[in-house]
Fold this sequence. Notes:
By secondary structure, the chain is of the alpha/beta class. It has a single domain, classed as Rossmann fold (3-Layer(aba) Sandwich). Helices cover 19% and strands 36% of the residues. It has helices at residues 90-103, 179-204; strands spanning 11-14, 17-20, 32-34, 52-55, 59-60, 68-72, 78-86, 110-112, 122-135, 144-156, 162-174. Strands 1, 2, 3, 4, 5, 6, 7, 8, 9, 10 and 11 form an 11-stranded mixed sheet that branches. A hairpin with a 2-residue loop joins strand 1 (11-14) and strand 2. The longest helix has 26 residues, at 179-204.
Amino acid sequence: MRLTSSPLAIALLVLGGCSTISSLDSASRSLDTYELTAVEAAGPAARSGGPTLAVSAPTSSGAIASDRIVIKPDALQVAFLGDGRWVDPAPVLIQQLLTRSLSSTGRFGLVTTNSTGPLPDHTLVVDIEAFQAEIAPEGAPAPVHVVVRLSVTVLNEGDGRVAAHRRFEADAWASDDSAAVIVPAFDTASERVLREVVAWAASAARV
């Protein structure tokens, strides 16, 4: 979902230098701001006395850890879209999406991001392995390929053991490299991953 508006192009960072994929309009103009959609599981109200789940702050590479939308022209280059950014740094955005999506199931007594307070029954540990758009090679279904990949672990806080671990991945295609077109592809891929994580985490926590 777009929150503000103003067009720019793609800014490319290459090994400490700076070049462009397409020409920059104006570095002083603000970027459009985007958020993504949480999964609404339409479950019952939160279970009184049900297990509690803490969603830890996800880890990620440095490029993903900002509020800029990552696009990779090739395997060795990292770029940021020049006409859009996330409403929050990507790890915060994904943590909030997971928290809201898991809460909507009604299968947990509480889903929280707080690191203080009573010890939760389970903790969801997330590493963001990919959260990016990629310029697709010639002959691909579309010019831009969006990839979302999370490595997720459920910990039992009572004994510190790993209850379950799994990697989740989904992709989507975009017809050009503008934020207005790429972000809906991120939303599609993220929704698929969220749905899988929600169902799996509830099963792993035995709720």
